[in-house]
Amino acid sequence: MNWEDGRLFLAVARAGQMLGAAKALGINQATLSRRMASLEQQLGANLLIRRATGCELTDEGEALAASLERAEAEFLQAQSLFDHSGPEVSGTVRIGAPDGFGVSFLAPRLAQLAERHPGLTVQLVPVPQAFSLSKREADIAVMVGRPEQGRLIAQKLTDYTLGLYAARSYVENRGLPVTTEDLRTHRLVGYVEDLIYSASLNYAPTFWSGWRSRIEISSATGQFEAVRAGAGIGVLHDYLASGHEDLVPVLPDLSVQRSYWIVHHESLRGLARIKAATAFLADAVRSDAGRFVRSTR
User: Fold this and answer.
1) Engineering a disulfide at 141: which of 121, 131, 172, 259 sits with its beta carbon 3.0 to 4.6 angstroms away?
2) Whether CATH 1.10.10.10 fits 3-80
């Protein structure tokens, strides 16, 4: 088996489908399918279970993918030895992040990263979902909480706090709750419950066990804009709400704290573009550290 066939197989394993892998590789889907069939014939094993909805790995396929990932990691490690031969960081780095952090904090600062490294192409994917680093959905991910599984390298970025907020216009019309039980009579804004991809993002019941959202939005930025427009009371990141005079803290003694972590796959350890982007993220948050945690509400 040659490495090119292994590289193609890894792309299929990560994409979970021929079409997606073919697009990522820039080759024809039929060609990729033939190459996979040829690889299976060479090895005398079935590697893929082909279905209408995509491909699943057989036990043999899982074992081969794990071996190829280790080989890829060694190759990238060897390549990284020469990434320091010149001052310029180049290539493409894709950063996945929760939408609140990605859109409101990171996106406005990406020009600084581009100016610091003119040869680097930066891709930001700020969406409310979990990223699979093993499938290369992102090179670097900003995650809520430290990941417990996978061959990942994690570095704590910052703690952050969340609180209850409402628009000033909403408060003028409906008043402020005095106790958590008073929330029962208010219109509440929260996540679409079955789309919450991590238990650590299920903030609302921490504030009030009886929480029932009347307006459900699957993204933090969407909830933020709805609350600002007077939709109701919602749980917002303090660093997003800070400085918005049209937002009023609700039951300000209540607060929840979480943590952001920078994570990348161990196979990318030592690559100049990964080190550059990770250092930039850490510096950007450190320079604005007081914004993320409110000591008094």
Assistant:
1) 131
2) yes
How many CB atoms within 10 Å of residue 139?
22
β-strands 233-237, 188-190 pairing: parallel
Q: What is the pLDDT of residue 188?
A: 98
Q: Quick one: how far is CA 189 from the chain centroid?
A: 22
Domain 160-257 homologous superfamily, CATH: Periplasmic binding protein-like II (3.40.190.10)
Q: How many CA atoms lie within 13 A of 50 on its CB side?
A: 8
Cα–Cα dist 250/247, whole Å: 9
Domain boundaries, the chain: 3-80, 91-158+259-291, 160-257
Q: Do domains 91-158+259-291 and 160-257 have the same CATH topology?
A: yes
pTM of the model: 0.73
Q: 174-227 pLDDT, tens per residue? A: 999 999 999 999 999 999 988 887 788 888 999 999 999 999 999 999 999 999
Q: Which residue has the tokens 């609302």?
A: 204
286 CB-near residues (< 8 Å, 6+ apart):
none
Q: Max alpha carbon distance in the chain (Å)?
A: 73
